Amino acid sequence: MTEIILAGLGQTDVGEHWDISLRDLAFLAIESAIKDAGGLKPQALYVGNMLAPNLSRQAHLGALLADFAGLTGIEAVTVEAAGASGGAALRQGYLAVKSGLVDVALIVGVEKMTDVVGAGVEEALATAADSDFESVQGLTPTAQAALLMQRYMHEYRVPADGFAGFALTAHANGAGNPHAMFRKAIKPETYAKAEPLTPPLNMFDAAPNADGAAALVLTRRELLPSDWPHPLVKILASATASDTLALHDRKDPLFFEAAHLATGRAIKQAGITLDQVDFFEYHDAYSIYAALALESSGFAIRGHGWKMAADGRISLTGNLPCATMGGLKARGFAGGATGVYQAVEAATQLRGQAEACQVTRARVGMIQSLGGPASTAVVHILEKLD
Amino acid sequence: MEIPRHWRLKKQRYALMGEVCPHCDAKIFPPRDVCPECHHEAKELFQFSGKGEIYSYTTIYEAPSGFDSNAPYTVALIKLNEGPMLTAQLTDVDASQVQIGMPVEMVTRKMRDDGDERGMIVYGYKFKPRA
Question: Does B61 touch chain A (CB under 8 A)?
Fold first, then answer.
């Protein structure tokens, strides 16, 4: 069977990079991934990006980033699926290499959130929702999450600080990740005292928008150079699914159907069961999304996802460590780069190089990249080989 | 700004014009020509009553461009009496009085403007409490 190996990993720090342009940020990640890959030459570039045409007035990133990485001539395109763009780009790279048509694929996720400040960023983010029937009402992605959180708390009688465990876990783990935007643990009182941002959601229920780029090199196992230096990590499964774009078009808004479908397909493809997953990188753009991801993916029964965080079951030493390098909440939400960050972080865990964030005896990691309220869900399962 | 894309939705924005599926009688809003229930063609027009109740709600303080002069404002998911759900701002109500399950009805209000740029004002549906 063809084994697809994560041969090179690269990432920039996540934060406010006022002095680094979109193309330079992407190049920093590409440069370190190619170096990490030990001389493999990419034949194709898949860019995961969500907002560059809007925030940086720059489309056509495939040609631009290939050019500025000294790779002019290779196949190069952008893959867009809102916040799931990075996961979707990784899947395109996987399909290309798995098919045999491409030997070495480079995937870069990049987002420049800080080229615009204020209301313009909210407007750009809102383009990922239904423009004619959601965004026109002034709805934002944060408000979508707040609508779900309000209903969830109502239906399941969740206490006011019920979601605190997600932010506490993320910040505790982010403290050990040198690339994370926030590297400081927070106390339960800090969460409890936070002002509501978009009620009932407070600032600790939402991941911070940030700049960042992450890159991966994929190849087939037999094409690795003989002196390639890293522990082997392969893509065991890759799957994706879609749901209605608009939240109001769902019969059951409190269940992420696309996350359910993509996870089910990936688990089947991998030939494993959910309890063989050693850690889970969920898409905690909002703490309610983390809870719904745990439930929709099958790790928790409905209405109980928040309890996994409250009871410490998702901490590094819990039975299902989540957001092991800080997740979106503490690492920062770099839009379309997110899915690639998740893959780089999960591969780092499986290589055993996560240092302070290391999950002991990790062999199988699952990453889930969501676009909007899981209108797109992309799931990859990674496995450490002996 | 974008006159055609608002103009062509005038029946939905001013009159909640949706569709009814001739095969399974599902009421559809927004109109989409393919029934979300039975996946058959559904192009018959159907006007909604504009009555419904609140499924969920929140208040937006950090608004996108075009809405900032109106902030803070409350948006809700509204379950229409005929079945479908839609997203709309609430109006003529104090945000602290809003509750899940509250009965509401459609009214026509100003949705957004372009500031001083070109002077276009978009009108459409919002919802207010009903007795």
Answer: yes
| Inside any domain, residue A228 | no
Cβ atoms of A380 and A343 closer than 8 Å: yes
Residues whose CB is less than 8 angstroms from the CB of residue A35 and which lie 6 or more positions away in sequence, other chains included: A8, A10
For helices A141-156 and A287-296, angle between their N-to-C axes, nearest 10 degrees: 60
Question: B42: burial class by Cβ within 10 Å (0-12, 13-18, 19+)?
Answer: buried
- Return the residue of A nearest to B71 by Cα: A138
Suggest the residue from B77, B86, B90, B114 to mutate for an interface test with chain A (most A CBs closer than 10 A). B77
Q: Confirm if B93 and B49 have CB atoms less than 8 A apart.
A: no
Q: How large is the C-alpha radius of gyration of chain A? A: 19
Q: Please state which CATH number belongs to domain B3-129.
A: 2.40.50.840
Q: Give the model's pLDDT for residue B4.
A: 87
Indicate the length of chain A as a whole number. 386
Which strand ranges, in their side-by-side order, compose the sheet holding A104-111? A75-79, A44-48, A104-111, A212-220, A4-11, A233-242, A376-384, A364-371, A279-281
Contact B112 A198 (CB under 8 A): no
| Cross-chain residue pair A134–B87, CB shorter than 8 Å | yes
Nearest chain B Cα to A139, which residue?
B75
ipTM of the complex: 0.96
Supply the pLDDT for residue B1.
Answer: 57
How do residues B69-112 score in pLDDT, each as one tens digit? Answer: 889 999 999 999 999 999 999 999 999 999 999 999 999 999 88
Which of A223, A254, A269 terminates a domain? The answer is A223
CA dist B84 and A203 (Å) reads 32
What is the pLDDT, as a whole number, of residue A79? 98
B91 inside 8 A of chain A by CB: no
* B122 inside 8 A of chain A by CB: yes
Residue partners of A90: CB distance under 8 A and separation at least 6: A46, A48, A107, A216, A238, A339, A340, A343, A369, A378, A380
How far is A150 from chain B, CA to nearest CA, in Å? 6
Q: Give DSSP secondary structure letters for chain B.
A: --HHHHHTTHHHHHH-EEEE-TTT--EESS--SB-TTT-SB--EEEE---EEEEEEEEEESSPPTTTGGG-SEEEEEEEETTS-EEEEEB-SS-GGG--TT-EEEEEEEEEEE-TTSS--EEEEEEEEE--
Q: Would A139 be classed as within a structural domain?
A: yes
Predicted TM-score (pTM) of the model is 0.97
Handedness of CA B90, B91, B96, B102 (dihedral sign): negative
Q: Print the domain residue range for A138.
A: 129-207+235-384
Q: Do B55 and A247 touch (CB under 8 A)?
A: no
